[in-house]
Design brief:
The structure is a single chain. This protein has about 400 residues and is an all-alpha fold. It has one domain: MFS general substrate transporter like domains (Growth Hormone, Chain: A, Up-down Bundle). The longest helix has about 30 residues. The chain is globular, with a radius of gyration of 20 Å. It is found in: Cell inner membrane; Cell membrane.
Length: about 400
Amino acid sequence: MHSPRKQPKLGGLELTVMMAAVMALNALAIDAMLPAFPRMTAGLGLVDPNRVQFVITAYLLGMGAGSLVHGPLSDRYGRRPILLGAIAGYIVCALACSFATSFDMLIAMRIAQGLFGAGLGVLVTSIIRDQFEGDAMARRMSTIFLVFMAVPIVAPLVGSVVLIFAGWRSIFDLIAIMAVAVLVWVVLRLPETLDPQNVVPIKAKTLTASWKQVISDRTANCYMIAGATAQAALFGYLNSSQQIFERTFGAPDFFPIGFAIIAIGIACANFTNARIVERFGARRVSQTALIAFIFIAILQAFAAIFAPASLPLFLVLITANMAMIGFVGSNFSSIAMQPFGAIAGTASSFQNFVRTIWAAFIGAIIGQQFNGAVTPVALGFLACGLTAFTLILYGERGKLFTRPGTTKHLPM
């Protein structure tokens, strides 16, 4: 039996858009930076152009480490106060980044910003889990990701526009201003969603027991790590995306447009997923998408070898594969969270920690292999897809395309 859930005072649509806006702050902190990489490299005196990728990796690592903190705090003190503190800290660190006088200082501030940014993703997942579960949760999360994906579509363009009128530091100032707007909205409209019956005291023994409960679930863990591995492919591309457009295809001015095209692919996938997941089931949809991801990655590898200078072909294939990640991401996360309704905050926190650290680490390795060609990204996608599929096979004990509560295979 599940405890009765407190219904939010605001409407379901407003809750969805608000949570998307909260999550979008993380995307903004990453994607708006990308057009500024050349100026950051020059302004901070970096010799190796690949090193500037750590501006993204540092934020992601901070997000991963911070994920362990915000979940338990929200399980004890409620979702609302912890979310407000996370947004406020995010704002302060964004402003600090704009005053960084060295690359090392910038990286330190980005890690700190990521520590607070971690609360944004963890709390959104927990708030939605407080209200929904299973395929219903997957549908809401997919809708949130759909709204959230508007940011990657426009963020690089916003960053490029800022660079026309000001330096790269002003991008951080703009991020802080946008976060202030979200903070005001949350203060005025978001009620507490944590059921008092699910309050969990912060005790080492309690945390250890909760983490043990999460770790001991074989299926949830496999979906968690598989989702992280698929996300690592995305991060690998993200880290080197600006360099790919500038150095590989000689089209730096096209970068914001190309990035938007790819982001639209993910948005379309989430739009579609939100409308089909409750009909077909999160497992069936996401597992089919993962198989398609692998086949497209094979085509990417061939294209990297036989048509390395074709920007149109690159855009078609990577957009298709990013769309598959759109089907995989929210569904894998929802499946991994399904068993942990009573400890949603702690479970979401732990899973975000593992997912983000793993994805950031593997994504950084893929990004650092950039050598002027798209081959490292293509091979990284293929390796990530095969690894994720192996994990799902293990977690499901070889039985794919099933739905919770049944052992019957659904027709293809």
